[in-house]
Amino acid sequence: MVDVDKVLDEAGLTNPHVREYVKEWAAVTTPERIEVVSAADDARLVAEALESGEFKPAGEGLYYSQSYYKDTARSEERTIVATNDPADKGIYNNWRPASEMKPKLIELMTGASAGKTMYVIPYLMSPKGSPLAEFAAGVEITDNRSVVMQMIRMARVGAEYINDLGDSFVRAVHVTGDLPNLGQGTPDDKRYFVTVADERTILHFGSSYGGNALLGKIAHGLRQGSYDGWKNGFLVEQFMLLGITDKQTGEKYNICGGFPSASGKTNLAMTLAPDALGDRYYVEFYGDDIAWLWVGEDGKLYGMNPENGVFGVAKDTNEATNPTALDSIQPGSGAIFTNVAYNVKTQEVWWEGKTKNPPEDLDGWHDWKGEAIADRTPEQAGEPWAHPNSRFTTTMGNVPNVAKDYEDPKGVEIHGIIFGGRTRDREPLIRAIDDVAEGVYDGLTLGAEATFAADGLDGQLRYDPMSMRPFMSYPEADYAAHWLEVIGRASEKPVFAHVNWFQRDAEDGHFLWPGYRENLRALLWLMQYKNGQVEGRRTAVGVLPTEEELNLEGLDLPQEDLDRILTIDVDRWRQEMGFREEHLNQFEGLPEEIWEAHRRVAKALDDES
Ligand code: GTP
Ligand code: MN
Ligand code: MN
């Protein structure tokens, strides 16, 4: 038996509530050792991981890691939000009674860390001193060393963040389990990822993949956070957050927004290229995956990124699409690459789209499962080298255009909120929405093609309200009402907009818009629109830029493609309204303002000739 008190004393972990929680779970999972970690332990943990083979070197201060091959993405089916109140059951939160789930998880976790080290990770999902800091603290306990090093990069980690907080921290328990024997994806699946939201307790069993195992990020930063926000008057969303400064006028605009997983948040937030537009603008990175939004004492809407790092999709990251991401994973950055391809001889990493073609010399290259590429049969030749959901992990401080004030506890004022996703038809490049209820309605009816970030859903069309579907923790009707209430309280309303970088040609399937770094052009138009500098063209579904208003300098787009992305297909939209009605009808008790917005848009479409 570990002398828990002795370990906690030595680590300076004095908070009595945290101590009690650690003891309680150590008694369940029965680890061989316990260690309290802080960011200062990173170098030692890395050395241990290199020694054990958990990490492989991928250049100076860069690391390659692999999760089990059946454990490479979030599992939505196995993810549950549990509470003690059946009224918390929504359509997407997979609600179960807390009294049913807790005993199940305790049973699965009993003795499950035997022989392992239990790491205690005190963390904060906000800058220190944030007005929301009381909801941001947590203590993850995990039996997985990779998880610790990922958490150190993604959150603020150390006992100093939680010692003074009393009982106000999230209890986040992660047990990896015996990965080869968990029946992933079979009827006998043993994994469970449960957030007991009204007890502020997270119990995840059966994965070491980031989205399931870094509990500060998704389980706390999104699911628990949004439940807390509902009860305490703030919003928690899967949003990126960026700032654009017009150097000529000195004006700065901050835009946040939600796109479903693997639909371009990280790319948009990191990679905008002001230099393409004559050096007039300066774009700053605040966050790429989560934003917490609140109304400040001055009545304005504020936002902050609770994370301290970036967990980005590797696929298609290259000099052209996202040079900023490449800069932030340079030698010496401490970046971790998970489930990419790896060369055991040269220690290089590669993923699809890193370069146009894979390396020619196959010697030493292994795919994401660890199998030698040179040994592939002709049938296997076309299979990807890297998993499509392979990721890089790096800290905010490594991102070259990180905002100087990204750690300011005050947060930043929010001027615009955008929604977008992968939509191959119907959705134009950008449409601005002035009315708050219509903006919220637009977010609730965000529909897009699902991606490889969740198991087994790639390519399916589905609605993903505000990009929160996989993270929804309470009923959708309450969620809509909460949005209207919070934004309604703001003295200055943000402009809303829907964007789409993914419209395709119906015949050959090419993307109609070059995307990536060029997306700044659409956001600049939105800011000019908010400022009254451009008027746009009013349509039934919002205001679209005219061709003259949109900065197209230096772009060579076929007129046909441009026409398509700057107009709406009224027939296709009329059909869409029927699908939306069905979608919204699932949400019992949806606020009347949302239905009114729906009817206004439907009528405007009917009136359009
Ligand atoms: P999560 O981190 O899973 O929440 O996803 P994300 O929204 O941050 O997605 P990310 O920015 O990592 O983009 C995922 C995929 O979309 C990558 O394969 C990108 O290459 C692709 N992508 C991003 N932006 C664009 C764009 O503007 N145009 C096109 N065609 N593809 C894009
Ligand atoms: Mn995400
Ligand atoms: Mn991302």
From TrEMBL:
One of its GO terms (molecular function) is GTP binding. It catalyses: oxaloacetate + GTP = phosphoenolpyruvate + GDP + CO2. Its EC number is 4.1.1.32. Keywords: Cytoplasm, Decarboxylase, Gluconeogenesis, GTP-binding, Kinase, Lyase, Manganese, Metal-binding, Nucleotide-binding, Pyruvate, Transferase. Residues 234-602 form the Phosphoenolpyruvate carboxykinase C-terminal P-loop domain. Its cofactor is Mn(2+). Substrate binds at R74, Y209, G210, G211, S261, N389, S390, R391. One of its GO terms (cellular component) is cytosol. The active site is at S263. GTP binds at A262, S263, G264, K265, T266, N267, R391, R422, Y516, R517, E518, N519. It is an enzyme of class 4 (lyase). It holds the Pfam family PEPCK_GTP. Residues 20-229 form the Phosphoenolpyruvate carboxykinase GTP-utilising N-terminal domain. It is found in: Cytoplasm. Belongs to the phosphoenolpyruvate carboxykinase [GTP] family. Catalyzes the conversion of oxaloacetate (OAA) to phosphoenolpyruvate (PEP), the rate-limiting step in the metabolic pathway that produces glucose from lactate and other precursors derived from the citric acid cycle. Monomer. This is Phosphoenolpyruvate carboxykinase [GTP]. It comes from Aeromicrobium piscarium. The gene is pckG.
